[in-house]
Structures
1.
Amino acid sequence: MSMDRRQFLKLGLGTAMAGLAATHVPRAFAGGAGDVRVVLFDAFPIFDPRPVFARANAMFPAESGFTDLWRTKQFEYTWLRTASGAYRDFFSVTRDALRFAARAKKLPLSAADEDRLMGAYLELEAWPDALPTLRALRGAGIRTGFLSNFTRGMLDSCIRHAGLDGLFDQVLSTDAAQAFKPSPLAYRLGTDTFGLERAQIAFAAFAGWDAAGAKSFGYPVFWVNRLRQPAEELGVGADAEDEDLSGLVAFVKARAAV
């Protein structure tokens, strides 16, 4: 995914908290009976990655495009390694992408600088709408979990740091599949772990490509489009979209047998 850092830094939460009630209807909402019992989240609908880029900008304030290149190369490496069968975990891939971006921009990245930037991925805060959304889902009898490219260690560290302990029934890293999203092997971790059909597991995506991948696999998909990006031209897309998590509860309740 190519991400515009400036959009991230300017991103406001808008009505993230106010619209959490079930009366909020997300764009492209398609109601109807269903049997959703679980919601799986990518990492970034829950965790705010902006501090990573803020730290990088503070360290290299004069270098335009460094964080964009780091982020772009990070995801290129996940796709290339999955396609080639040369898997390395997401923390390692992120470090490799950081080193590439620093070399490409001719930046003096010391080992201490590298560790400081990588450490930011272990202490992400939750978006303000994450905790009330998780509580609302669990209060409605819906189980919750992660299905992320993050390593289990990255997820556990961020969960502790953000104060979200005990709010996830499963914490699934694509490490277990040795393949990154959007590989079907990665999405299959959800059905295998919960023992449910695909239509019974909703997926909350952050990136348009992840929304398309999860939908292609067969999950009902809610796209948390915090960057306000257009949908990818991949022939398939999310069932519903909003700029935050405020419409997720309504989306799930309309499809839940609880």
2.
Amino acid sequence: MPDEFVASDRARVFRPDEIRYWTEVKLEIVRDYAKAYATIMQKQKEKRVLRRFAYIDAFAGAGLHISRATGTYVLGSPLNALVVRPSFDDYYYIDLDSQKAGELRAACVEHGNVHVWEGDCNSVLLSDVFPQVRYEDYRRALCLLDPYGLHLQWDVMREAGAMRSVELFLNFPVMDMNMNVLWQDAASVDSQQAARLTRYWGDESWRDAAYRPSPDLFDEARVEKVPEANAAVAAAFRTRLRTAAGFAYVPAPLAMRNSRGAVVYYLFFAAQKPVASKIVNAIFRKYANVGLATRRD
């Protein structure tokens, strides 16, 4: 790990988040693709068909974690991106937590092309970041949208697709969905929780994927969760990224599982070019079953 990112005085004052193995796998996946992406974009710049390319992290955190498995420091995605070669031209980082945003800003203080915002990424992306990577300005971006739960809004994903210049890695937080929304009996779900999923999804079509009419002859209006709801909802969202957000290529997402095999979330990728999909499919296959038999939560 580069020494510039692990200052001992900062580590003593600020305790980084502890991450589990599936987060470490995700970091490796994004880093692997970022290297391939930067190589391709740099060649496009050399051909003078592209001016600049950027890395965006909308839930950036402090940039440093502690591995639960080993107790060692692990670079987060913002700092991983800084050590990718060829280098990105610009880095746009956002976090709602003021302390984390401050820690990340301090870690990147010597990098003049790093821009850190403290705020809600749903507004910052649309107002401040996406305008910096417009297709018509010959700019491109790789964007990581990695919320812990249903904190992302559909408008962000739809705009990224419409721009044609942004490729996405996206956390589809099925654990939050199952805990708070996708209950066996839809009628018992709190309306505010259901509204969170609707904001993430963009409309209420998620209900069609997650529920079906109950066989209860005495309550025809009742609906129950389908047995395969996780996979069904993820498949429906994959279709939605293509048809409603306008991404031409959305590979089958990678199910990120805990040591018991339960899906924690699905990692989606969305892009406009077939080569991007081909590369990500290969990376997903590489990491699909990494350490599954020996993982520990």
3.
Amino acid sequence: MIENPYPAMWQDLQKGVYRILNEIGLRAELGKVIATPRGNVEIDVYAVDENSVDKIKYIIECKNWNVNIPQTVVHAFTTVMNEVGGNIGYIISKKGFQIGAIEYTKNTNIKCLSYEDFQRKYFPIWFEKYFVSKIGDSVDALVQYVEPINSRRERIIDQLPKKKREEFFTLLDRYRNFGISMAFFEFPRYSSYFSISPPADINELKQKLSELGEEFVFNAIYFRDLLKELIQKIEEVTGKFHAIFGKNIFA
């Protein structure tokens, strides 16, 4: 899961859907008001795929109810979809849907999804466009500190006092494998040939990270939290290298 599929508040559900859609490259808005023949209608989450030829419009209603959503909600949503000209409609619930609601949407452009289903649907593209990209943005200096050959780094190391050089190589031995592992998240920005397949689940990725050493055991149970932990660790390790030189030597 990208994040907790059972949000406590209805605002959290709306913001979660909005956030994920923006992170995968859509232009999403919260609480967009659209004029219709019946008057103004407020859409929980409105999103446009600007990269699609026809600028596909998503109309999304979020129901953070603790019961299954009935067919009457789908009826009302169908009217809204028709009046605002939506291309794809999602009704997203915390729990689920009554059978009648699911049957009613068959062969329509409206889909009934739990928040868990929604996250599973978009996880592969979210992992590629957001998770991988965010780590790639944060590792540039660390990768240059640990990569096998870096002429600029070597020139500056040669100018360090002996004690500082020893500190650098101690850090290098400690964090080389971690830095090189994180470098793979930077490669996709250069070519799709280096794309990283999403893990089957978070435990698969956490297991691989833990093999780098005890300090790379992470506690997150959702990918968003793991992303925060990883970036925090990258910044922490990079800061240790900066401290040896008194600055970011690659800035």
